[in-house]
Design a protein that fits this description.
- There is one protein chain.
- The protein has a domain of 198 residues: Ribosomal Protein S5, domain 2.
- The protein is 41% helix and 23% strand.
- The protein has 11 helices and 12 strands.
- The relative contact order is 0.17.
Length: 388
């Protein structure tokens, strides 16, 4: 959305005159490969996308944070000085988690703020719409408080908010990509050290397509946090025979040698995925640098199969999309992306064939499931920033 349109929407929503507005943007992300490795101390390969969350903010005279979610046409008011936990519900928990963080570290601001939140990311699709809202809020509050925190500190604050305020035991992948993204690059990020290397995202003659199942998922539910607990159990038993700080510290060879120390089969499978997926990120980075898109695609399919069979976070709709791609010579590779349980897959589709391939995939999906999937292209963009 254009900044002029955002400002018009802001003034209309709050019934206020022009003046004092600031505009911020934080992108969503696509994880090219490296799923469920972030909280296991491993490597990920995300890219920030051109879609995300816009925030328009201006001071008010009401001594409250007055938030409007434009996409939902919903309003939330939080008086300055009130218990921030009162905002820990619904859509507002994402911006309120960052407000809580800033209040705990820096106190309440001297005046209230009108805050409009608008997003153009599909919700519950595995493209990190929630992290996008949180990072946009963090960048906004950094301006409001005049704290000049570096972006990496805002990323860490957002992860802390997601873990402790929202209640999702996620790693740092989503907010790091949203905050630190770089135009035309993906990031190879070590989630243990936060060291990262930007890798040029050159996939010509292919286009990165997002294949949205339109099956909604709930991350804060038990299944995601169960996976984290199962990985921690596996690490505890593995480290009893070969001490290491995280699952992704183990090589595939070490896992094959010592993995039998993991007593429960379900935990063995979770560990196997994390450790082999970590190696796939290393191999995928080399393939991308070498412009070997066939090898990158092969690794993407391997990743999906592991997420389906060992991590058990795929679903029929995701599997159908990926398998349809697998059978086509015009697709280099495809996989589910995000935490799973629905959401999106991604695919590298040859540009000369996409006008025929995507409609055929859409028809096959509808014929199979009786409802439509959504399809859109994505490109790598910059991370969160102030626009005005």
């Amino acid at each position: 959305m254009k900044i002029t349109d955002l400002l018009h929407l802001f003034r209309l929503s709050f019934q206020r005159a022009e003046g004092g507005e600031m505009v911020f943007f934080a992108p969503g992300r696509i994880n090219l490969i490296g799923e469920h490795t972030d909280y296991n101390g491993g490597l990920v390969m995300p890219l920030a996308v051109h879609m995300g969350t816009y925030i328009v903010a201006a001071p008010n005279t009401e001594s409250n944070f007055h938030l409007i979610a434009s996409n939902f046409n919903e309003t939330y008011k939080h008086p300055l000085g009130a218990n921030t936990q009162l905002g820990n519900q619904g859509w507002q928990k994402y911006p309120m988690g960052l407000i809580d963080w800033f209040v705990r570290h820096f106190g309440w601001p001297g005046n209230g703020w009108d805050i409009l939140v608008y997003g153009d990311l599909p919700l519950s699709a595995g493209l990190s719409s929630s992290a996008s809202v949180e990072m946009a809020t963090a960048v906004m509050l950094n301006e409001i408080y005049h704290t000049s925190l570096p972006m990496i500190e805002l990323v860490k604050a957002t992860k802390e908010s997601e873990n402790h305020f929202v209640g999702v035991s996620c790693g740092i992948l989503d907010m790091f990509a949203s905050g630190m993204g770089r135009e035309s690059h993906c990031l190879v990020l070590d989630c243990n050290t936060l060291d990262f290397d930007p890798v040029p995202f050159n996939i010509q003659p292919y286009t990165l397509w997002v294949l949205n199942t339109n099956v909604k998922r709930g991350l804060a539910g038990s299944e995601y946090n169960e996976r984290v607990a199962e990985c921690n159990e596996a690490l505890s038993q593995l480290s009893g025979v070969l001490p290491k700080p995280s699952l992704c510290s183990y090589s595939p060879d070490e896992f094959e040698q010592f993995g039998k120390a993991i007593s429960r089969d379900v935990c063995y499978k979770r560990a196997k995925h994390a450790i082999y997926e970590n190696q796939r990120v290393k191999d995928a980075a080399e393939a991308l640098v070498a412009a070997d898109l066939m090898e990158l695609g092969r690794l993407m399919y391997q990743s999906h199969d592991s997420l389906r069979d060992d991590y058990e976070v795929s679903c029929d709709e995701l599997d159908f999309l990926v398998d349809f791609c697998r059978q086509s010579s015009v697709v280099a590779g495809a996989r589910m992306t995000g935490a799973g349980f629905g959401g999106c897959a991604i695919a590298l589709v040859h540009r000369e064939a996409e006008k025929e391939f995507i409609p055929s995939l859409a028809k096959a999906y509808f014929d199979k499931f009786g409802f439509e999937a959504s399809f859109y292209t994505a490109r790598a963009g910059n991370g969160a920033s102030r626009l005005l």
